[in-house]
Amino acid sequence: MAVLVACAVGVAMGLLLVWANARAAITIAVxxxxxxxxxLTRGALSPKxxxxxxxxxxxxxxxxxxxxxxxxxxxxxxxxxxxLSDAQRQRFRNVVGNVRLEQLVVGSRR
Length: 110
Prior knowledge:
Elements (H helix, E strand, L loop, with lengths): L1 H25 E8 L2 E7 L3 H12 L5 E9 L2 E7 L4 H12 L3 H4 L6
Antiparallel strand pairs: 1-2, 1-3, 3-4
Helix pairs in contact: 2-3
């Protein structure tokens, strides 16, 4: 019985590692918002997109949130965590959704 439990724990840990690596591979950028100021913590974005995201974060100022921009079928998708209104979430989606993936990550190519 102990061997079976050990195997199950090992498989669960392996699956968790595979999930974490796959998630990291599709992540384009991660940004933190604190008191209306957006700072990239991982990855790079084109200056235009970064400026547009900073505008959304500052008007009205967002107290705290985390943005994760990921690849999804030749497009970018944004995942937002934090206490934001539906309108603010939609503004972030509009900024990322209106730019082709190649233009979004141009900042990392320089």
